[in-house]
Amino acid sequence: MSIKEYLSKEHQHCDNLFAMAEEKIAEGDWNTGSLFFNDFYNALTLHFQKEEELLFPAFEQVSGNECGPTKIMLSEHAQFRTMIDQLKENVASTDQEGYMGNSETLFMLMQQHNAKEEQMLYTMADQLIPDTESLINKMEEITN
Fold this sequence. Notes:
Elements: H1 3-26, H2 30-63, H3 69-92, H4 96-128, H5 132-141
Helix pairs in contact: 1-2, 1-4, 2-3, 3-4
């Protein structure tokens, strides 16, 4: 399995959880919606950890570039964390209108971010990193 295949599946999993949270919250089902949102948050946090602790440093090492695509991705991750904090507040206060507006914005940004990672960064990583299997195995070991 390639890095692109492995991490793209995680993107899809996070997107599905996010969509389910949004659907349930739009229906006013805060109990189920908040469960899906928490699952999304945990899955995304784990995904970011795999990228930030393993993929990005490995990519920077083989590419010799610490100011390129990984720096942009890290900046976007930080932006997502801020937006997710807003969504957490919306869930805590059952602010449906706020949640729907913030989730729409976050979803659009995540789609753009995922496309950049999948089409550029992951493809480049698969080409440049010599032992992608070992890297994926290390990612699999991260569980919290």
